[in-house]
Design a protein that fits this description.
Length: 123
């Protein structure tokens, strides 16, 4: 296979494998945390090799400082501030910041739009 060339079936299989590995990591974490870290490593290897981005659901379960699996409640702290969510890894202390201002703005826009539509109906 040519370098950098990736047909659609490769991406599909890669996505499936990443999903399976993360699910395994989630279920194994309570008994074997080292295993779940290894599953994350394997999933990251697949995603970097075939250039498949991790889905947003799993992206927030991996520490960006030490690449360990995060389980909220046991080795991860989640705090909500005004406009962003902080994910703190308790293994290395790295804080991942996920802003949600876009969602806030969208919500407001939808509210205003629905209000305008209602006004038009009433007129
Ligand atoms: Zn960490």
């Amino acid at each position: 296979m040519k370098r950098g060339f990736r047909p659609k079936w490769v991406i599909k299989i890669g996505k499936e494998r990443i999903d399976i590995l993360f699910k395994l990591a989630d279920s194994e974490f309570s008994q074997h945390p080292e295993r779940s870290n290894r599953y994350v490593k394997l999933a990251r290897n697949i995603s970097t090799k075939y250039n498949i981005p991790l889905s947003s659901k799993w992206k927030r379960r991996v520490c960006k400082g030490c690449y360990k699996f995060l389980k909220p409640g046991s080795n991860c702290k989640i705090r909500v501030t005004n406009g962003s969510v902080h994910y703190k890894c308790l293994e290395c202390g790295h804080v991942t910041n996920v802003p949600y201002k876009k969602e806030k703005k969208e919500k407001r826009r939808k509210k205003i739009e629905s209000y305008i539509i209602q006004k038009r109906i009433n007129e």
